[in-house]
Design a protein that fits this description.
With about 160 residues, the chain is α/β, with parallel strands linked by helices. It has a single domain, classed as Rossmann fold, CATH 3.40.50.1240. The protein has four helices and six strands, in the order βαβαβαβαββ. It has a six-stranded mixed β-sheet, sandwiched between helices. α1 packs parallel to α2 and α3 packs across α4. The longest helix is centred in the middle third of the chain and has 14 residues. It is globular and about 45 Å long.
């Protein structure tokens, strides 16, 4: 069985004159990332692989989760290709996960995350909000073979 934990980056700032890739988290985004990461401690397994978009807002979100879930920040693999809004690209990246890993945590962006969870999960989600967390499980031994799975947990900031 494979388990996928998808986390949309927390709320980011549009006020600074930066390109999209370099936008930082807002104070609310920082707070929401702390709330969600603390709220999912009992859901996250003991061993996992962590991938994050290299975009500043996703990287900052992943770092906050690392602090609160007590895993080394240097264990996060920052991937430029996860800076995508296309669920087909996100699917391609997730399906490339090594099969020895049964638990994958991914920090990424919308609309890729919402569209991915609706394609592969069994619960429709209108929109995964910033700092939103969705856990999916798949009855397969190969990441490349994932298809319709089960939506196990949904945790959004408004829930906590």
């Amino acid at each position: 069985m494979k388990q996928l934990f998808l986390i949309r980056h927390a709320k980011s700032s549009w006020t600074a004159p930066l390109n999209d890739f370099d936008r930082p988290l807002t104070n609310r985004g920082i707070q929401d990332a702390h709330v969600i990461s603390s709220g999912i401690k009992n859901i996250i397994p003991k061993s996992f692989l962590v991938w994050s978009s290299a975009a500043k807002r996703a990287a900052e979100t992943a770092t906050i989760f690392a602090q609160n879930l007590s895993f080394p920040i240097d264990s996060i693999e920052f991937k430029n290709e996860l800076y995508t809004f296309d669920h087909r690209k996100l699917e391609e990246i997730i399906k490339s996960c090594p099969n020895h890993c049964n638990h994958l945590i991914v920090f990424g962006h919308n609309e890729a995350i919402t569209n991915f969870v609706n394609k592969f999960g069994n619960t429709f989600i209108d929109n995964v909000p910033t700092a939103g967390f969705v856990q999916l499980s798949f009855e397969t031994v190969n990441w490349s073979d994932i298809s319709k799975g089960k939506t196990n947990n949904i945790v959004f900031p408004k829930d906590l």
